[in-house]
Amino acid sequence: MIKRLLVTGAGGGLGRYVRERLKGPAEILRLSDVADLSPAGPGEEVMRCDLADRTAVDELVRDCDMILHLGAISVEANFDALLQANFLGTYNLYEAARKAGVRRILFASSNHVIGFHPVEERLDDTAARRPDSLYGVSKCFGEDLARLYFDKFGLETACLRIGSCFDEPKDRRMLSTWLSPGDFISLITKLIAAPAIGHLVLYGVSANRDAWWSNAHADFLGWQPQDTSEPYRETIERREEEPAAGSDYQGGRFATMGILGER
Ligand SMILES: NC(=O)c1ccc[n+]([C@@H]2O[C@H](COP(=O)([O-])OP(=O)(O)OC[C@H]3O[C@@H](n4cnc5c(N)ncnc54)[C@H](O)[C@@H]3O)[C@@H](O)[C@H]2O)c1
Fold first, then answer.
1. Is 230 left (phi over 0), alpha (psi -120 to 50) or beta?
2. pLDDT tens sequence across 194-213
3. How much is the mean pLDDT over the chain?
4. Measured in Å, how far apart are the chain's first and last C-alpha atoms?
C-alpha cells in the first residue's frame, strides 16, 4: 500500500469511478480538479487546482507517492484550450513530480493517439502513433513527456491508452473499444502495486471479442480484464444498423472531424 495517491481530474467520469471504487492501494486519496468537488470523506483530501497554474500544481503534488493523471480536456477542442489543460497542465505535473520525487505516474492517454489506424489492423505497444485529432496530439505529447522523464530522471509512467470507459458500451465502435469501470479499477490497482513498470504503454480495453489492441507485452502485471462487450452486442447492432461516421478508423468520428477553431 502506498501512502498518498494524487488523482487529477477527480470530478470527471473516470474520477468518479476512482472515488467510488478504488479501495485499498493507497492510504490517502488526494482528489483534485479545476471544478468543485464534494467535501473530503474518510481517507480523502480535496484540493482544487487548475493544472495550468504552475505554482498551484507544485503545491498539489507535494507529499504524493504516485499520481493518477486524469485531469484534461477529454474530447476534441480548439488548440488554445488544449494548450492550457493538456499540454501545459501535463508539463506542470511532470515538473512538479520530478521536484517532489514522485515515483510513478499513471497517465490517462487515449486511443486517439492511434486513431488513424484502420479498424482492420491489430496493434500492440510498438504501433506507430497516428493521432486523429488535436486532442490525440495532446496525448502524444503527454506520452513523449513521460518517456523523457523516465529516460532522464527514472520517473516511471504507465501511458494508458484508454478505449471507451463508461458504464456500458454505447455504439458499435465501443463493442471493440469498451473498458468496463471494473476493469479500469483493477488495472489501476495492478499498476499501483507492481514493483517496477519502467515506461509502459498499455491499452485500456476489456476482453471484447473484436478488440483491436494487445497488451501481451504487459503480461507481467497479471492484469486480466473480466468484462466483455458481448452482452450488449445484440441491442447495439439492432439500434445502429448503418456504419457511423469514421467507422473505417479506430478513432471513429474523431478521424473525420475538422480542426476546431481553425484559423
Ligand atoms: N472516459 C474515456 O473513455 C476516456 C478515453 C480515453 C481517454 N480518457 C482520458 O481519461 C481522462 C479522464 O476522462 P474522463 O472521461 O473522466 O473525462 P472528463 O472530461 O469527464 O473529466 C476530466 C476532468 O478534468 C478536469 N479538468 C479539465 N481541465 C482541467 C484543468 N486545467 N485543471 C484541472 N482539471 C481539469 C475537468 O474539470 C474534468 O472533471 C482524460 O484525461 C481523458 O482524456 C478517457
1. alpha
2. 999 999 999 999 999 999 99
3. 97
4. 49
Look up 135 and say whether it is catalytic. Answer: yes
State if residue 183 touches ligand 1 by the CB under 6 angstroms criterion.
Answer: no
The cell for 159 is: 501511458
Task: Give the span between the Cα atoms of 20 and 147, in whole angstroms.
Answer: 31
The pLDDT confidence band at residue 262, using thresholds 50, 70 and 90, is confident
Looking at the predicted structure, is the pLDDT value of residue 242 above 90?
no
Ligand 1: atom nearest CA of 16 is 16
Strand order in the sheet with 104-110: 44-48, 26-33, 2-8, 66-69, 104-110, 156-162, 199-204
Of ligand 1's listed atoms, the one at least distance from the Cα of 13 is 16
Domain range list for the chain: 2-256
Report the nearest atom of ligand 1 relative to the CA of 84. Answer: 31
User: What residue's CA is closest to ligand 1, atom 1?
Assistant: 165
- Average pLDDT in the 120-144 region? 98
Helices of type H across the chain: 13-21, 54-61, 79-82, 89-100, 134-153, 172-177, 181-193, 230-239
Annotated active-site residue in 94, 135, 149, 249: 135
pTM (predicted TM-score): 0.98
- pLDDT score of 243: 84
Is 115's C-beta closer than 6 angstroms to any atom of ligand 1? no
Q: What is the pLDDT of residue 263?
A: 79
Q: Give residue 238 CA to ligand 1 midpoint distance, Å.
A: 31
CATH superfamily, domain 2-256, is: NAD(P)-binding Rossmann-like Domain (3.40.50.720)
